[in-house]
Amino acid sequence: MSVADPPISTGERWADRLICSKTGESGELDRPEFLSPAGAPWLVHYRLDAAAGPAFKAALAERPWNLWRYRELLPVKDWDRRVELGEGGTPLVRLERAVPAGIEVWLKDESGNPTGSFKARGLALAITRARELGAVGVQLASAGNAAIAMAAYAAAAGLCCRVAVPVDAPRTVIERCRLHGAQVIVAGRNLAESGVELARREGDFWELSTLKEPYRAEGKKTMGLEIVEQLGWSLPDWIVYPTGGGTGIVGMDKAFDELEALGLLAGRRPRFVAVQMAGCAPIVRAFESGLEHAPPWESPRSRVWGLRVPRAIGDFLILRALRATGGTAVAVEEERIEIEQKRLACEAGLLVGPEGAAAMLALESLAAEGRIERGQRVVVFQTGHPGNYA
Ligand SMILES: Cc1ncc(COP(=O)(O)O)c(C=O)c1O
User: Fold this and answer.
1) Residue 318 CA: which ligand 1 atom is closest?
2) Domain co-membership, 72 together with 100
3) What's the pTM?
4) Ligand 1 center–CA 356 separation, angstroms
5) Which tens digit of pLDDT belongs to each residue from 126-148?
6) How many domains does one find in the chain?
């Protein structure tokens, strides 16, 4: 454990309840909750007051550069029993080469997280909360990084773990999950079918799939908090994010709301760009059609595993964030990914995963169209290490 200081408030948590993201109904914080009665994601609500902002900001100066520095904005009850493997505190790197001329591009490189991806942030919180609320086992369906992260954090917490992966999931993912002691069910042609298979199994396993419990979004939220700090308490003009279930967009949007409520942020919000693959782009299609929800993608096809998500339970939250910020959604062609990974390695010394390459390609398209303008500041997410899919 690295953070020994007490919360800057009076020792209480600022988190006070759950809120249904659809209806606004309240839920109890310290009870196991998955989806709300309306079938929508629960989000954690905090009591926030601009008077507490300056002390919160000052306290950060004394704390280690990792996810747990934002403790007042995290929902953990038993602080000393948090499950920590060194997550968060990732670099924000200014790119000078291999980027569109005249645009200030920063890469938020999440590949240095434990288990090699940003999924560590969400699963650190979800597993911490699952254990403190009484879980003995956890499960989810995933084609890649979420499975590896859950297996690792469950091992660290001493919880049983079960994952379901599609039949064509990379071998590395299956082996890494087994290495961490997880039971791996290989079933289904895609995430939705693997999920159906998982639901058929018995046992006391809590479901930790994206936005089907309230805490992974809290972990992902810290990416937004870090960006604000790394940019000197300011915001970029754009955030380009490879989007599957969309926890990152939902989480960062929430982070900015919370910093604003603390009086630590004002002004125009960054425009979110949701990046998906042309072979599985439900959010892009719904955005372009003006829909509030995204109908499931019928035959998802992509080797960019993190983006092969045919249906997002938080679709309306992602779409709302894109529209409210004046953002957009971009689909990227599969065959451009590998070329982009090679280009970035060769021209800029960057080793990016396919999802990060997709985000960089979206940046280039938006810059070429003049949508992202010269002089603007853009944060692009590189979310996972390519080695996880080897
Ligand atoms: C490397 C990578 N990038 C992006 C995503 C999509 O993330 P989100 O669920 O936050 O949209 C995933 C999800 O699996 C992933 O593994």
Assistant:
1) 11
2) no
3) 0.96
4) 10
5) 999 999 999 999 999 998 999 99
6) 3
